[in-house]
Write a structure and sequence with these properties.
about 130 residues; 4 helices; about 80% helix; about 0% strand; elongated
Length: about 130
């Protein structure tokens, strides 16, 4: 089964995830904390940004994969993939700032939630249509 669109967005989200992971590792080295945040606000923020990506990207990719496998037109899959990737990137950018940019964080969450809801709706509708 060939799913090139989901593979493309999964690859880009993996690059984002690795970048966020490297940021946590770098900060852990700087503050010499192996587990937890050790009370360091920058490390705590980096950990939460990384964890937030880990919490939302997998379900988004799973839904995107199911939409692609359901045979929706490529532009529908791409629209949801772009929204998911943009949402996760914008959210990480806004949340990563020392002076958090709430507007970017909110835009990122809205884009992510719209993607999850859109994919869920497509799959629900598709599950009731005859094959």
């Amino acid at each position: 089964m060939h799913t090139p669109i989901t593979a493309f967005y999964a690859s880009l989200l993996a690059i984002l995830f690795v970048g966020l992971s490297m940021r946590v590792i770098r900060l852990r080295g700087l503050v010499r904390v192996a587990v937890g945040a050790g009370g360091d606000p920058a490390l705590e923020r980096a950990i939460r940004v990384h964890a937030n990506c880990a919490e939302y990207a997998p379900i988004g990719l799973l839904l995107l994969l199911l939409v692609e496998l359901s045979g929706y037109t490529p532009w529908v899959v791409h629209a949801n993939g772009v929204a998911l990737l943009a949402g996760r990137t914008i959210h990480a950018w806004g949340m990563s700032r020392t002076n958090e940019v709430i507007r970017l964080r909110a835009i990122g969450m809205v884009a992510t939630f719209v993607t999850l809801a859109s994919c869920a709706a497509l799959l629900l509708v598709g599950s009731f249509l005859p094959a």
